[in-house]
Description:
Number of helices: 5
Oligomer: single chain
Shape: globular
Structural class: alpha+beta
Amino acid sequence: MRLTTKFVAISAAAALLCAAAAIWILRSGEPARATAASGEVRPVWTETDWPFSADPWGKGKAFRCKAEDCGGEVQLYVRAKLGFCNCATGVADDGDLEQMGDLALIGKATPLGAGREIIVGPMRGRSRAYRLEGNRNAALSLAFNQRCDMVAATALVGPGAPASLEPAVLAFLNSDRMLKWAEIALGL
């Protein structure tokens, strides 16, 4: 029986080592591009100039994902709104998201369904998809907060992009680069 126990332990260790090696190999290579055949999206976000005129919240950060990387053109606008969030409840429901988000920057929009809870770093908030009136683009509105301060993010999704880029947008917002920016912008 002792030999069987050793065999099981060695087999489990070998399987774990193989799994770790496979994950390392997949993560260490250059990101694959989006392909029409696979439908897989591996966004590459490039910072661009903030395209909107000044308002009480100031300028934010703007990013672009090219069609070849996202399956269609995607613009992402992110900015901090200090003191704007409900300190007790945060971005608790779709009504809060409507009030606190930045959809007004890109036009009149109609929700495509109910929003859902999201987590960005240590912050909680909501996300909801929209159809923009008067053009073929869709939008994703996200807002998340830390105490009384929040971040509003809006993704403008062009024709041809996958219907739901929310996981890719959330992954970018949860990246070290963006979490460090949020920490500085919100004074955390």
